[in-house]
Amino acid sequence: MKKYLFPLLTLLLLASCGGNDDPPPAPGGASLVFPEENSECTTGTSVNENLSQVTFEWSASTNTDSYTLSAVNLDTNVPQTISTAATSASLSIAKGTPFSWSVTSRNSKSEQVASSETWLFYNAGTQTSYAPFPAQLVSPISGSTVQKDIANEVLLRWSGADVDNDIDAFQIFFSDQNPPQTEAGSTSASVMELAVSVTSNTVYYWRVITTDSQGNTSDSGVFEFKVF
């Protein structure tokens, strides 16, 4: 009996002293604070006639030891990024320009990351009124393949916003050519979806032009999707 006792004790010790097989905790998503969503940011410190330094702020997220701030110039789609362990960071960004911004949370012990919401804002310039933010195309997701409905249609959905809160209309351009030049329809400021006719095994392209009451416009850029 004794000859079995030592191996059994050894196994018990190994089991009790062994490493924890639980995966490291994934980081949580940060909550954005400033610049506020769909706002005009007027607190930037002027760097020169073209740039001002804006301090971005967010709330701490769980299981996080670093954050990556990304601010995207919506006129050029060029991002600026900076990493920090703090819950704020400053970037020098173009004046009088629309931006989107978001924060990615990271944990050095985990391969997983978490993304915050994405907010839009205008960095203040010399203008007294602003063009609408470029419409954010929601669905179909660009590059996706979708199923048409029983009426051989697909529903296009987007979101729109304006600092001046004076969006007048959305124009939707849709075709199987890139860029789409055919207007599929227009909607009022309160309607942000449109059903379009489609054919199977075809790639389609779409974009939304937003117009405000002063005639200012913005372009969403082109999304594409394929129909089964």
From TrEMBL:
InterPro entries: Ig-like_fold (IPR013783). Keywords: Signal. It comes from the Bacteria. PROSITE patterns: PROKAR_LIPOPROTEIN. Residues 1-21 form the signal peptide. This is Fibronectin type-III domain-containing protein. It comes from Flagellimonas ochracea.
